[in-house]
Specification:
It contains nine helices and six strands; from the N terminus they run H-E-H-H-E-H-H-E-H-E-H-H-E-E-H. By secondary structure, it is α/β, with parallel strands linked by helices. Helix 3 packs parallel to helix 4. The longest helix is centred in the first third of the chain and has 22 residues. The two termini are about 30 Å apart. Bound molecules: 3-methylbut-3-enyl trihydrogen diphosphate (IPE) (2 copies) and magnesium ion (MG). The site of one 3-methylbut-3-enyl trihydrogen diphosphate (IPE) has 11 residues, from strand 2.
Amino acid sequence: MYARAAGLEPARLPRHVAVIMDGNGRWALGRGWERFNGHRRGADTVRAITTECAKLGIPRLTLYAFSSENWTRPASEVEFLMDLLADFLRSELPTMLENNIRLESIGRVDELPERVLFELANARSATAANTGTILCLALSYGGRDEIVDACRKLADQAARGALDPTSIDRTTLQSALYAPQAADVDVVIRSAGERRLSNFLPWQAAYAEYVDHPALWPDFTVADFRSCLLEYQGRERRFGAVPTR
Ligand code: IPE
Ligand code: IPE
Ligand code: MG
């Protein structure tokens, strides 16, 4: 089996991996290049890691591609990232189809430019029937915004009389998130050695294991990804209970 050959325990693979792809700018600046070169190379890493998840049979991979805070970057960088995203969605479609990958997105996607929305809709519909790994791109995503949007949705239902406020529980809130069916995040992986969540999936990752890796995202390899999964597999998850061993 592929997972075992990769040095991983097949039965203990995470169901949902979330990755904070960080260090593109540093990678480029370290070479005396402009930051955007790092983003371009980072897209190659996205392809490699996504394909690896498909081969391992990991059901869901959420990638932090553009945060709600990233809009504060210089307009030229934002513009470049949007172009890159549109190109990526178009050029990666054959690879996604080949690997039975289904594309999804979370975030305030309506804030994205028209050309990105077009490619996103196209890739989503072209891969909708695929049954393998779900690649979920977090775009214009902020965890606090997601919870605010969920609250608005529920408040609206309550105001229309369709929801009894006293019946609201965790399941109700989960149902109002951007991707309600998604399993909880098992492991958050962050490249470039940073150790923070940066507003990524606070609800879904409430009990996730956190693994950081020193490689800058354009240098982050499949072997690095496997080592993060191995680290995850070595953790004991207690969920607040007493240890089992
Ligand atoms: C991650 O790399 C890509 C995005 C946030 C879009 P950065 O651009 O954050 O790279 P650093 O952190 O400046 O090195
Ligand atoms: C988080 O990285 C966002 C993405 C990876 C898209 P940032 O580089 O934007 O986060 P901070 O600013 O270091 O927290
Ligand atoms: Mg960064």
